[in-house]
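dumping this here before i forget
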Amino acid sequence: MENWQKDLLEIVEDVTDEVENFFVGVTEIVESFFEMSDAIASQVQNTITTEFDLYLQEWAEPLFDVYTDLEDVMSDLEQPFPHLVEPTETRHPACRGCYNYHGQVYNGSLLVCGMHPYGWEDSNCPDWESSN
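structure:
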């Protein structure tokens, strides 16, 4: 009678060992799957990032070129147009209220007046005429 109990105990131990081996094998397979999926995900991410960067560069580069060209054109257009510079107490004080004062900037150079293109040095210009 003890034989069948001993046999039953061996069978239960064998089943327990086989179940443990099964779960160890499943665990190894799952770990391998996760390692493989991490590698695949990393490779896909690198590929997508690289492709997206190339696409974005191909798309944006012509826009940057146009913007740069437009900036050059705008800076060229700004130069030729004269603009008025009013005389102040510190800059060309002799020209304040003078009829002959021109005060236009051409290509970065100020033309103060026809008689004194660079302005008069002190506050009493000999060619001053009232603009009123």
